[in-house]
Design goal:
Elements: E1 5-8, H1 14-31, E2 47-53, E3 56-66, E4 69-77, H2 86-97, E5 102-107, H3 111-115, E6 120-121, E7 126-128, E8 131-138
Parallel strand pairs: 4-5
Antiparallel strand pairs: 1-2, 2-3, 3-4, 5-8, 6-8, 7-8
The structure holds coenzyme A.
Length: 146
């Protein structure tokens, strides 16, 4: 398992960018059976964070600085690399290395999963591309707490 790596859009190699987009489409469009605009212009201003394993890209997320908070998105782990703590480690890496507060739109089924990372729901559930989501927030003062 590789160390966590990160890069801005312009720091990604073509091969890495292709691998990221391919896995995002594989998970969010194909696996979740959701035809939506997965490739959006938000990638240009994002920091891309990932880990590799022997099969290539294993876990990924992106972070976008917005006004007074950081937005975490596109959180995924390749299907056959799940339940090893990879996504949790990537999010913890972001919480340790960036200024909060942090926000995200969680798929509603993951409320408790993000809750274990210190996020709390801060708005009503909504449908995005047909999938139920909830807005979640983690405040800065929780840094370092488990
Ligand atoms: C959600 C996802 C990113 C988690 O990735 P992961 O690397 O497997 O996550 P971790 O190993 O850090 O955590 C998994 C653990 O979280 C816990 N967990 C999983 N789903 C949970 C849920 N709905 N509620 C509470 N805890 C949950 C479990 O303890 C699980 O371990 P287990 O499978 O051994 O029981 C991954 O399943 C995935 O890519 N899903 C599809 C894409 C997606 O929905 N992304 C989130 C968009 S908001």
């Amino acid at each position: 398992m590789s160390e966590i790596q990160e890069a801005p859009f312009e720091g990604l190699s073509l091969e890495r960018l292709y691998e990221i987009l391919r896995l995002r489409v594989e998970v969010f469009v194909v696996e979740q059976k959701c035809p939506y605009r997965e490739i959006d212009n938000a990638d240009f201003g994002a920091i891309h964070v990932w880990t590799d394993d022997e099969q290539g890209l294993a876990s990924y997320l992106r972070v976008i600085k917005e006004e007074d908070h950081c937005r975490i998105g596109r959180v995924l782990t390749r299907a056959n690399a799940r339940s090893k703590g990879l996504s949790r480690k990537l999010i913890q890496h972001v919480l340790d290395g960036t200024d909060g507060p942090w926000v995200l739109s969680a798929q509603s089924y993951l409320r408790d999963w993000y809750g274990n990372l210190g996020f709390t729901q801060n708005g009503a559930e909504f449908l995005e591309d047909g999938i139920p989501h909830i807005p979640m927030l983690r405040e800065c003062e929780e840094i370092g707490e488990s």
